[in-house]
Amino acid sequence: MSVSRHLRTRVLRAAAVGVALALAGSACAPSTDGGGEDGDGDVTLTVWSWRPEDAEGYERIFAAFEERNPGVTVEFRGYQNSEYPAILQTGLTQSSGGPDVVQLKPFGPIQSFIGAEQLVPLDDEVDLAAWPEEIVAAARGRDDGRLYGVPFAFQTLGVMYNEELFAEHGLEPPTTWQEMTEAAETLRDADVIPFATAGRDPWVLAILRETMGATRAGGGEFAEEVLAGRTDFTDPDYTASLRTVADLEPYLPEDVTAVGYTDAQTLFTSGRAAMYPGGSYELAPFATAAPDLEIGYFDAPPAPDAVVDTPLTPGFADGSYGVNAASPHRAEAVALVEWMATEEFGRAFAEELRQIPAVPGVAPADPLLAEMRGNYEEHGTPYMMSVYFGYGEPLGRDAEGQALADMLLGRSTEEEAGARIQREISAWFEPTG
């Protein structure tokens, strides 16, 4: 069945319900006055996102949906990432003027909206049975197991590097930790910052720990041990992974704990820093900021005394798109997120936004993204602080990032940092064993 036929079915179903309510004398049917419907009966769906930089890409993506569904216009509204959670919290409580479709953070952050019944359950609306559960889990309710969003991207973590700077200094992508630190020494001696990162933002430091230290802790196998209660974050292998990353401080930007996220991005795109440990989601904004920048990629080599002897590519399902339960255009909004589960959307998403789509079977044409995805398929590991420990307060990534920041400032040892992380996460996490 085509998307437009699905939409017609949903609209007719919604209309029938509306007629029944009217005949019953109901006074609580939602009004569509000023809610995105013009005088001709056309509908405008508003889609809220934390990525304003994707606006032009989504305009082209949604044009295909609009063509298939005459009378429906999709309006993308992007807000700053740091401001988005509060804006979304307010928007979903509004009886009018709020969004129809919302971009939702994965795993933990979506749960409060589910608990408040602000999202439409999608189990009977969207068929994701063929999708990997590691992706679908990002949009499920933790308590009820129901589906509340359609995941849009899968992200991998690794080290991006400036190919021109590497060539200028006679460097090759490192295959061992020693080669990587020797390259960092060469760059630092040439007044080039080896690694750009943002120590002011805990979530970025958690990305750094996972990217550079997953091999030392043991990747997904360590996470499974914690989940089962057989170890915790005071484990010597885990605390050693914190120390491994803190020991890279001489190769990070000066006063790294004062460096913000956008500052770190600029250090890399301006050529002041040669390497950037981060996610595949960085490629599109890097290309926008520096179209001529030639970017290469490598997995961080196994750290000293690593538990595993091969590189690991951490990865995680990114956010999803859900439907606002208060939307006056629920049928059309559901049809839109249903379309977001199709290969047509997945291909357009990969092409327009230069990201790895979540839709199964859609491989990114971009060679760098294809390499990142291929590395995950070959030796991937879940980004544990998002996938497994991203459900409480504080989020695992924030607890880890804050503790690592204190280490970089010389305020704590790795053992103290591990104990702090364990204490904060155990405030809401209970092992299954």
How much of the sequence is in beta strands?
Answer: 5-15%
- According to CATH, what is the topology of the largest domain? D-Maltodextrin-Binding Protein, domain 2
- Please write the string of helix (H) and strand (E) elements: HEHEHEHHEEHHEHHHHEHEEEHHHEHHH
Looking at the overall shape, the CATH architecture of the largest domain is 3-Layer(aba) Sandwich
Determine the mean pLDDT: 91
CATH superfamily of the largest domain: Periplasmic binding protein-like II
What's the total number of strands? Answer: 11
- Count of the domains: 2
Shape estimate: globular
- pLDDT < 50 runs, ≥5 residues: 1-35
Overview of the molecule:
- The protein is α/β, with parallel strands linked by helices and 433 residues long.
- The chain has 2 domains: 3-151 and 319-357, Periplasmic binding protein-like II (D-Maltodextrin-Binding Protein, domain 2, 3-Layer(aba) Sandwich); 155-316 and 369-425, 3-Layer(aba) Sandwich (D-Maltodextrin-Binding Protein, domain 2), CATH 3.40.190.10.
- 43% of the residues lie in helices and 13% in strands.
- It has helices spanning 3-23, 55-68, 84-91, 111-115, 133-136, 163-168, 177-189, 202-217, 219-228, 236-246, 261-269, 283-289, 330-339, 343-353, 367-379, 384-387, 396-408, 414-425; strands spanning 43-49, 72-78, 101-104, 150-151, 154-162, 193-195, 273-279, 295-298, 313-317, 320-323, 380-382.
- Strands 5, 6, 7, 8, 9 and 11 form a 6-stranded mixed beta sheet that branches. The protein has a 5-stranded mixed beta sheet with strand order 2-1-3-10-4.
- Helix 2 runs antiparallel to helix 14 (343-353), helix 8 (202-217) packs across helix 17 (396-408) and helix 10 crosses helix 18.
- The radius of gyration is 23 Å and the shape is globular.
- The two termini are 45 Å apart.
